[in-house]
Design goal:
This protein has 583 residues and is α+β, with helices and mostly antiparallel strands. Helix content is 32%, strand content 18%. It has 16 helices and 21 strands. The two termini are 42 Å apart. Keywords: FAD, Flavoprotein, Oxidoreductase.
Length: 583
């Protein structure tokens, strides 16, 4: 019997638990699961009416080197030590090395513990390169972990799980795995090509299962990527009997004798105090707090962020009253990606992050408002977003992603699918701009025609040669992995824009996560400015100052630490109150 994970505050049968976890992204759900596995009585609290946080929108990748999954799959020995050296170079003094060490050396243990839980089927990615591939000890793969696709019919409270962004789904909410995308792309652009018939069969099988199950559920049941991670954690939590309160916020943190002793919860008109020995903050960071954005991200509109709505920073205000404080960052308090804004039928705008599916493919180029290239289109999304903001006098915001007809058909562009599916709709709503020539396209973007023509001609010459002497596109293992492995040219990321019509969309930098958060110790305890810990108070995920500083060295560097420090926090909290009971 699948029981829904939503409980009313008035129906809560206990007035005291051991651990309260606030937030239901990967960090919060994993923290609660690990605490329950330690024998704790756990209560999960979620501010919104949906479970999953920003994790539900993401690929759901966990960057955790040296796991048993990697070793059993054939990863090279010594990868954990190699990863430590890699982070020393990639991050350096931007974060506390002792925190990085705690993350790295506890990570394999946390994944082994997670994999033992009912429903937690995980796999390693042998080919998924680190983003700073130019550095020694970067890896081609084996460090990223992901949850296997799950049938949502087996997930408790499926309808309460935050769904993937609509622009990343097909056929009324059908979610795809990363390996599905290539199959569906081939089918979309050339379904009758005999070479694609294997992909046609795969796509047809996935769609048929979707079509059969869809009438019996309020949402699509195939859960992939971040939704798969959330779904599998919910199965495990249901097995552990952990209740979840939705639409519930923490109004006050109760302290007794210098330590956390409970919280005052509010759900609608109901208010109730629940006692607890530990509180784990996993609310997803500050990014949805207008006040904190004004202070930390004054030039970045909230509507450019794809982060889930629950990350309001409300619990952060309460933690600061107890002495918790944010750490310092060298360059940016947030992580970034280029995004485009997609008009929706209800008048709202979807935020489409351009992680990997278009901008680094052959036949795409990015220019600033003057019509000039200024960045390497195959940079990692965080570096790309930073470069947009740092470009001269704001001329990189917005930027323009430009392609030709052949490349649009092959790869799509943003919310326009491969094969050109959705092109007419996006031309009508203004998301996509089309012109028969580069000279005609330029004024539609506010660019001098001769400048854009010169830029494209120069770029095409580089593409023909397979070398980008200006910006070095496609020079690292990571960058080449973003290209087209079937491209006949010398560089899988470089292809010319030859024949019209030509297309363009606008790109903006969008914050996809918080790098700046509460300073913690190696046990994930929140620290005051004098270095003392607020006893019983922990932070994980984007509520915690990132162990990567403000660098983004690989796929899953927010979710990986979120899960690992959830494990650390749960075990430390159990040890703390067990010791207190013995005294």
């Amino acid at each position: 019997m699948l029981t829904p994970p939503a409980h009313r505050l008035s129906d809560l049968s206990v007035a005291e638990v051991d651990v309260i976890v606030v937030g239901t992204g990967a960090g919060g759900l994993a923290s609660a699961l690990f605490a329950a596995a330690e024998g704790a009585r756990v209560l999960l609290v979620e501010r919104t009416e949906l479970i999953g946080g920003t994790t539900a929108y993401t690929a759901g990748t966990l960057w955790i080197p040296g796991t048993h999954l990697a070793m059993e799959g054939g990863a090279p020995s010594g990868d954990l030590e190699s990863a430590e050296r890699y982070l020393d170079l990639a991050v350096g003094d931007r974060s506390d090395r002792s925190l990085r060490s705690a993350f790295l050396h506890t990570g394999p243990e946390a994944i082994r513990a997670l994999a033992r839980e009912r429903g937690m089927k995980l796999r390693v990615r042998p080919q998924h390169p680190d983003y700073m591939a130019e550095l020694p000890d970067s890896a081609a793969g084996w460090r990223p972990i992901e949850a296997c696709t799950v049938n949502g019919a087996h997930v408790p409270g499926l309808n309460r799980v935050r769904q993937q962004t609509p622009e990343f789904t097909v056929f009324g909410g059908l979610q795809l795995e990363s390996q599905d995308i290539a199959a569906f792309s081939r089918v979309a652009r050339a379904p009758l090509n005999p070479a694609n018939w294997g992909h046609v069969l795969r796509a047809a099988f996935i769609f048929a299962k979707h079509a059969v199950s869809r009438p019996f559920h309020a949402r699509a049941t195939r859960m992939t990527m971040g939704n798969a991670l959330i779904g599998r954690l919910l199965i495990a939590l249901n097995n552990r009997g952990v209740p979840i309160l939705l639409g519930t916020s923490v109004d006050r943190i109760v302290m007794e004798d210098g330590r956390v002793s409970g919280v005052e919860l509010v759900q609608g008109s109901e208010r109730r105090t629940v006692r607890a020995r530990a509180l784990i903050s996993a609310t997803g960071g500050f990014n949805r707090s207008p006040r904190r954005r004004q202070s930390l991200l004054p030039d970045s509109p909230m509507q450019h962020s794809p982060i889930a709505p629950g990350s309001t920073g409300q619990l952060h205000d309460l933690i600061e009253e107890l002495g918790g404080h944010y750490g310092e960052v060298a360059d940016s308090p947030a992580f970034w990606a280029p995004v485009s804004l997609v008009p929706r039928p209800d008048g709202s705008e979807g935020v489409y992050p351009h992680f990997a599916l278009d901008r680094a493919k052959p036949g795409f180029v990015v220019v600033d408002q003057d019509g000039k290239r200024y960045l390497n289109e195959s940079l990692s999304y965080h570096r790309f977003g930073l470069a947009m903001q740092q470009h001269q006098n704001g001329r990189g915001v917005p930027s323009f992603l430009i392609t030709d007809a052949a490349s649009l058909k092959r790869f799509g562009i943003g919310a326009v699918r491969p094969g050109g599916w959705g092109r007419r709709k996006r031309l009508r709503d203004g998301y996509l701009v089309q012109a028969s020539s580069i000279e005609d396209l330029a004024p539609m973007l506010g660019i001098a025609p001769e400048t854009l023509r010169s830029t494209i001609d120069t770029f095409n010459g580089y593409a023909d040669a397979g070398i980008d002497p200006d910006l070095g596109r496609g020079t690292t293992r990571y960058e080449r992995a973003l290209g087209d492995p079937e491209y006949a040219g010398a560089n899988p990321t470089l292809g010319p824009l030859r024949k019209g019509p030509f297309f363009a969309i606008r790109l903006y930098p969008g914050d996809i996560g918080a790098a700046q958060g509460f300073v913690t110790d190696v046990n994930s305890r929140i620290l005051r400015s004098d270095g003392s810990a607020v006893v019983g108070l922990y932070a994980v995920g984007n509520d915690m100052q990132s162990v990567m500083g403000d660098r983004y060295p690989g796929p899953g560097i927010t979710l990986g630490p979120a899960v690992v420090f959830g494990y650390i926090a749960a075990r430390h909290a159990r040890k703390e109150w067990s010791s207190a009971q013995q005294r």
